[in-house]
Design a protein that fits this description.
- By secondary structure, the chain is of the alpha/beta class.
- It has a domain of 126 residues: 3-Layer(aba) Sandwich (Rossmann fold).
- The chain contains six helices and six strands; from the N terminus they run E-E-E-H-E-H-E-H-E-H-H-H.
- Strands 1-2-4-3-5-6 form a six-stranded mixed beta sheet, covered by helices on one side.
- The model has no long low-confidence stretch (mean pLDDT 90).
- It is globular, with a radius of gyration of 20 Å.
- Strand 3, helix 1 and strand 4 form a beta-alpha-beta unit.
Length: 197
């Protein structure tokens, strides 16, 4: 059974997540999305995996992403504590934690901060800082600028100026629409390239 849930953190942040829970799960697999994404990124995996017959599959919208709108402090500590809180709320003391891109980096950090909560890691395209080269390595040096811009945004929020709330992007709908457009384009190209006699 797949259900949309919300966990409220001690600091008041509402963390949205989806939980596929079979009748008698043998464990939990937490799935963490990458940058500029949300929990719907995992729709196809959850739909097609045989794990859903025996594993709880928990897909979290990180603070500031998807349904987890948050204007306060956000970073690795908060994201890791949110995972631990959700696991506790769902009755799991340990989980396999998997992630893509930034989600993989968060999974590694979660393992370091909450080692008793980890029974395994699944890392898809992690991006350790030591592996950065060229322009990416130079960009990291501008990290301070991100903190300055973040501070300005928080100051504007404090005086009542907010960015408008954007609707969460449903990546399942976007994927289906994109695939349909690609299929239509490919079928048109094939029809032009190889016309039927």
């Amino acid at each position: 059974m797949d259900a949309a849930r919300v966990w409220v953190a001690p600091d008041g942040a509402s963390i949205a997540y989806r939980h596929w829970r079979p009748s008698n799960p043998r464990g939990a697999l937490v799935l963490l999305h990458g940058v500029a994404s949300n929990s719907t990124r995992w729709w196809e995996f959850v739909a097609d995996t045989s794990l859903k017959g025996s594993w709880s599959l928990i897909r979290i919208d990180r603070r500031g992403q998807g349904g987890s709108v948050w204007r306060g402090a956000t970073g690795l500590r908060e994201w890791c504590d949110d995972i631990a809180g959700i696991l506790d709320a769902e009755g799991f003391s340990r989980a396999v934690v998997g992630g893509h891109c930034l989600g993989a980096n968060i999974a590694v950090e979660f393992a370091a901060r909450h080692p008793v909560c980890i029974s395994g890691l699944v890392l898809i395209e992690p991006l350790p800082r030591d592996s950065l080269i060229g322009a990416m390595r130079r960009t990291v040096r501008l990290k301070w600028l991100l903190f300055v811009l973040s501070g300005i945004a928080r100051a504007l929020n404090a005086v009542g100026i907010y960015r408008r709330r954007l609707r969460p992007l449903d990546l399942e709908k976007l994927d289906r629409k994109t695939r349909a457009a690609m299929r239509e384009t490919m079928e048109g190209w094939i029809a032009r390239r190889f016309p039927k006699p």
